[in-house]
UniProtKB/TrEMBL annotation:
EC nos: 1.1.1.271
Originating species: Metapseudomonas boanensis
Keywords: Isomerase, Multifunctional enzyme, NADP, Oxidoreductase
Sequence similarity: Belongs to the NAD(P)-dependent epimerase/dehydratase family. Fucose synthase subfamily.
Protein name, entry field: GDP-L-fucose synthase
Pathway: Nucleotide-sugar biosynthesis; GDP-L-fucose biosynthesis via de novo pathway; GDP-L-fucose from GDP-alpha-D-mannose: step 2/2
One Pfam short name: Epimerase
C-alpha cells in the first residue's frame, strides 16, 4: 500500500497503553494529521457525542483502541462494567464511523475471545468453538461483538473494517493498580516495592504454572499499523468474510513462574518467590498462532527481557503519575 501521510487518522483511546503506542508509531512514520479526543472532550459511551465528533471532523481512518481493561480481579469484580462499557464504546464508534463515511477502521480485541480450552496455539478459527474462561467472559463477549460488528458492516455496507487480536500486552502507560491491573504491571510494581522495602519474599497469585504469551505494546502498535496499511486484496486473501480477525503475538510463551523470575532479575529482587495457590490461575495456557500475520509480512521484534526492562524503566521514571486505578 502507498502510505498517504496526509490521511486524517483518529486514534480512539490515545491515553491508554495501546492507543498511545499507536500514536507514537504513526508520528514516527510521518503521519501529519492524527486526531485524538480526551474523555472530557468526547465521552465514547455517549452516542450523540461520538456522532457529533465524527460529523465535525474529517476522518479517513480509525484505530479503535479505547476499551475498559483489567486483570482477573477486575474482570471478576466488575463484570457489568466490562461488558456494558466495551459494547457501548465499540458500537458507538463503529456506527459513527460508518455514518460519517469512514471506509477504514481497525478494531483491537483480545486473545480472551478464544475458548478456555482451545487447542494451542490458538488459531483464528477457534473463535466460538467452545466455552469461554468464566473470569473474563463478559469482556470476551464484548470483544467478540466488536469483531462481528466489523464483519457485519463489511458485509452489509462494503466497509473495510479490520480486527486484530493481541495477546497479553505490556509496556509504557500500563495500569499499575495492585489488584485491577494485568499480571506484568501488577508484579512489576510488587517487585519494585519489595526491593524498596527490603522484603525477603514476593508472593505471586496462583500456582505459577499457567503459560502466557506477552507482547510489548510498541510491537502491537507496529503490527496494528501494518495490518491497517495492507492492500484490501492482500488482507482479504488472508482472511475470510466471517473470520476476518488476525492474531497478534510473538508465538512464544512462558510460565508465570518464569515471568516472575525474569521480573525479579529486571528489578534486582534477590529474595524468595512464593505462590498463593488459593488465588485463581485463569486459563491454563494462552498461546497465539501468529502464522497468518507472519504470512502478511510482520513478526514481533522485542524480546521479553528487553521489553520488561523498557517497561520497568518507564515505570521508575513515571511512578509518581503512572495510572494506579
Amino acid at each position: 500500500m502507498v502510505r498517504d501521510l496526509n490521511q486524517a487518522v483518529f486514534v480512539a483511546g490515545h491515553r491508554g497503553m495501546v492507543g498511545s503506542a499507536i500514536v507514537r508509531r504513526l508520528k514516527a512514520l510521518g503521519y501529519t494529521h492524527i486526531l485524538v479526543a480526551a474523555h472530557d472532550e468526547v465521552d465514547l459511551l455517549d452516542q450523540a457525542a461520538v456522532q457529533s465528533f465524527f460529523n465535525t471532523n474529517r476522518i479517513d481512518q480509525v484505530y479503535l483502541a479505547a476499551a475498559k481493561v483489567g486483570g482477573i480481579h477486575a474482570n471478576n469484580s466488575y463484570p457489568a462494567d466490562f461488558i456494558y462499557q466495551n459494547l457501548m464504546i465499540e458500537a458507538n464508534v463503529i456506527q459513527a464511523a460508518h455514518q460519517a463515511g469512514v471506509q477504514k477502521l481497525l478494531f483491537l480485541g483480545s486473545s480472551c475471545i478464544y475458548p478456555k480450552h482451545a487447542e494451542q496455539p490458538m488459531r483464528e478459527d477457534a473463535l466460538l468453538t467452545g466455552i469461554l474462561e468464566p473470569t473474563n467472559e463478559p469482556y470476551a463477549i464484548a470483544k467478540i461483538a466488536g469483531i462481528k460488528l466489523c464483519e457485519s458492516y463489511n458485509r452489509q455496507h462494503g466497509r473495510d473494517y479490520r480486527s486484530v487480536m493481541p495477546t497479553n500486552l505490556y509496556g509504557p502507560h500500563d495500569n499499575y493498580h495492585p489488584q485491577n491491573s494485568h499480571v506484568i504491571p501488577a508484579l512489576l510494581r510488587r517487585f519494585h516495592e519489595a526491593v524498596q522495602r527490603g522484603d525477603e519474599e514476593v508472593v505471586i497469585w496462583g500456582s505459577g504454572k499457567p503459560m502466557r504469551e506477552f507482547l510489548h505494546v510498541d510491537d502491537m502498535a507496529a503490527a496494528s499499523v501494518h495490518v491497517m496499511e495492507l492492500e484490501s486484496a492482500t488482507y482479504q486473501a488472508n482472511t475470510q468474510p466471517m473470520l476476518s480477525h488476525i492474531n497478534v503475538g510473538t508465538g512464544v510463551d512462558c510460565s508465570i513462574r518464569e515471568l516472575a523470575e525474569t521480573l525479579a532479575k529486571v528489578t534486582g529482587f534477590a529474595g524468595r518467590l512464593g505462590f498463593d495457590a488459593s488465588k485463581p490461575d485463569g486459563t491454563p495456557r494462552k498461546l497465539m498462532d501468529v502464522s497468518r500475520l507472519k504470512a502478511l509480512g510482520w513478526q514481533a521484534s522485542i524480546g521479553l527481557e528487553e521489553g520488561l526492562r523498557d517497561a520497568y524503566r518507564w515505570y521508575v521514571e513515571n511512578v509518581e503519575h503512572a495510572r494506579m486505578h
